[in-house]
Amino acid sequence: MNMEISEPEPQHPKFALPVDSEHKATEFRLFSVAAPHMRAFHLSWISFFACFVSSFAAPPLIPVIRDNLNLTATDIGNAGIASVSGAVFARIAMGSACDLFGPRLASASLILLTAPAVYFTSYISSPISFLLVRFFTGFSLATFVSTQFWMSSMFSAPVVGAANGFAGGWGNLGGGATQLIMPLVFSLIRNMGAVKFSAWRIAFFIPALFQTLSAFAVLLFGQDTPDGNFKRLNKSGDRPKDKFSQVFYHGVTNYRAWILALTYGYCFGVELTVDNIIAEYFYDRFNLKLHTAGIIAASFGLANLISRPAGGFISDAMAKRFGMRGRLWTLWVVQTLGGVLCIILGRVGSLNASIIVMIVFSLFVQAACGLTFGVVPFISRRSLGVVSGMTGGGGNVGAVLTQLIFFKGSRYSKEAGITLMGIMMLCCTLPICLIYFPQWGGMFCGPSSKENATEEDYYASEWNSKEKEKGFHHGSLKFADNSRGERGRRVGSAATPDRTSSMHV
User: Fold this and answer.
1) HEC sequence for 102-166
2) How many angstroms separate the CA atoms of 45 and 209, rounded?
3) 436 pairs with which residues across the strands?
């Protein structure tokens, strides 16, 4: 009697959301907390929100802090530059850490390492110590990179723009929320009997505690990928352990990453600059009360509730119709209009007009940030973290340069600095025209007609022949297949190449 013993079929994990071949979600359900996709979304934006609150907790209280520490305009300008300069290299390092160790561990580690600087703000006593705590607290802004990396690891091409837009935008809300939170906490502490110069110090324990708790939440409840954490996947062999040198090389040698780093420096970099100066600008120029100036300034950052997510949604919508070329054109148009509005903001002289222009300006400049990270996930599959870090770091470089040139000391009035910042935005947005993908085209050119200009060829080119023999490139081939929608209308008629031979080990 012959008995056939059949091998059990491999068990595939079940997810609450529909997924593609990489188990990335193909739908984005904003109000769901389903693990692992939507849980990662909520953990990422909340932890990034906490870091933003900590990093920009000082600006709304500057009028009080400067009196207590005898800060000059130069001291305040230097501290503002310090608050965003530290994250330049931290963001690049964070990208590499995400590629090698996963976004969960990378993010939580940085949040916990920078939290002590927020606590120490309560004990500073000089301009130098004020600069130092703002510098080290600003490192936490590198969690933006892990946020975008995490979303790009959890959500598929058709919705990755929206996922990145919401995660980054709602995290950036911290820049506006802190304009309301810190004056309110300060007032409550004053009403409880604390003197003015003690109340602002006590207030800093609130963002410090929030930041600490968010890190533990990420560690306890987060997951790196739909299939598990990097450590387990590396150990089981389900995810090949990559080499830092190769990951870094393929990121920094991709010219598209450098262009996005430059252009992001003049959307997100401008946003960071405005977060640092806007409350003081309205307080001094229009002789407003501290609380009133804080509310007006908060409206700029709070626009992230809809503006950056809208940029992500628009990027995905344009890609469905026009492909990658639609993403690039929309990014250029929106960021250019943001530059025009920035120029106008510096030119208007009435309070009401300034508020209106500032709000409209915030919508465009923040939407441009969301549109940028609608493109970033497609630059490189192997070096996604490095490219995300380079782009995010570019945002901080732009903020540093802008504040150093236009808002340090008294060389320019703040209104003149804002106008010049807008002109710089227009100039630095132009290089988007140079971004070209052989398989999809660019703003002015269609895709290449060569046979080797396919998604598979583009992403597999990041792996050498020996790595391909070991099958390390299979994840890139899956991503290439799932990115075919970036052809736009061509996807219906474009032939799908035979990948049988390329996937053979």
Assistant:
1) CHHHHHHHHHHHHHHHHHHHHHCCCHHHHHHHHHHHHHHHHHHHHHHHHHHHHECCCCHHHHHHH
2) 17
3) 442
**CA quadruple 425, 430, 431, 434: dihedral, nearest 10:** 160
- pLDDT tens track for 167-200: 998 998 887 788 889 999 999 999 999 999 999 9
With a threshold of 0.90, does the pTM exceed it? no
Please, are residues 193 and 26 in contact by the beta-carbon 8 Å criterion? no
Report, in this order, helix, strand and coil percent for the chain, each rounded to 5: 70, 0, 25
Query: How many angstroms separate the CA atoms of 187 and 180, rounded?
Result: 11
Distance in angstroms (rounded) separating the CA atoms of residues 22 and 158: 13
Helices (H), ranges, 323-350: 324-347
In this structure, which amino acid lies at residue 322?
F
Write a three-state SS string for 294-311.
Answer: HHHHHHHHHHHHCHHHHH
90-129 tens-digit pLDDT:
888 999 899 999 999 999 999 999 999 999 999 999 999 9
Residue 353 in tokens: 């007009």
What is the predicted pLDDT for the residue at 1?
Answer: 42
Query: Which whole number is the average pLDDT over 259-263?
Result: 96
